[in-house]
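This entry is passed on directly below:
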Amino acid sequence: MPHRKTESLNFYKYLCQNIGSEAIVKARRLELISSDFASSNRLFPRIYSGSRGEGLDLKGSDIDVMIICPNYVVYESDKYVVHNWLPVLVMDTEDSPPCFTQLELNTNVNNLPNFLKQQLHQHRGKLLLSSKLYKSRLLEQIINFCPGLKLNMHGPCLSDINDKMDYAICLKCDQWVSQAQPWISRTRSVWPSPELISKITLCGTLFVPIGNKGSVNENLQWRISFSVAEKILIYSFSHTQLLCYALLKILLKEIVNEKEELKGLLCSYFLKTLMFWISEENETSVWRPDNIIPCFMTCLKRLLYCIEYSTLLHYFIPDNNLFYLRFNNKQRNTLIDFLKQSYQKGIQVFSSSQTLYDYKRIPSETTRSVCAKTMHTVIGSMTDDCVFQCPSKSGRHLAQQFSAERFCAE
């Protein structure tokens, strides 16, 4: 046991040097927070999100910026509407899956300028703000205003030609939407605290211009975004938690995505969601520097579980299974085999990464012993674990479905 703690501490110190110490992460965050605050009084307030916004500066990470569009105000229901000079939109979730909504105009269309009218689409007797038209018209306006600026469409974002900057021009609702209301009061261990939950719900929700892929009304739908809430949650992580999250991102970007057949099957948002669920289910005391290797191995094991059963529920709206129809059988099996091999290597898997290739282990079999106790479970008994006896019940939150295994904490 002393050897295991020693290597965890050595690895923790190494990660602080190569990914960032607590002080460095704090400095990165303060710089962006001050930028966010400075923009709050501008016509287009912006919020940094993604790895940079979270305090990480990893190789290959782009800069994600949420820009709040001032052209509309959004309400969840027409009973909350307060009319002023801004056009009003009201959520309409009737024809949309969980985490998505349509936005219906609640203002006299004749009072709108032409460039806003061009973003609307008539659908079943309703005037809806089309996410597709919104992005295309916005891109046209930017190009007309700045002819030399080169931007591409990248999902819900406008990106520069080098894909280094992603701008999501989003809409804001000051209310915490009812789809995410159960998140406030559901059963959890310690994290997030009631104070943190209260702070998050006061921030409201955002809407980004992208629909549910493959949906009949995809071009009319908007995705409900919790980017501000997620940033607050990440900021509440201990440094050990943040480093485990960074390790997952490095594993994905520098190792998994290097395999052509695996590239694009996973994304950073899945890893963030995974970290939120694991953090909610466990005591905060397990996230210690002398326990960082077991913590990371447990996160990797959970990722394997989720892929095996194609079940990763959205953290705020669990009715949305992020892995539903995400992989075909061949992709899933290939990904599982690769991650099992990665699990067997322990932290030595990072020897093939650009960021952590030069980590030198203490001369022992420590890492192998850390994961040997649980490796047989990953390979041989996934189907026996009570965690996934009912994987189709995606409406249950993950704290119920994924309750089987705790961290390998001392």
Summary: Confidence is low (pLDDT under 50) at residues 363-410. The longest strand covers residues 165-173.
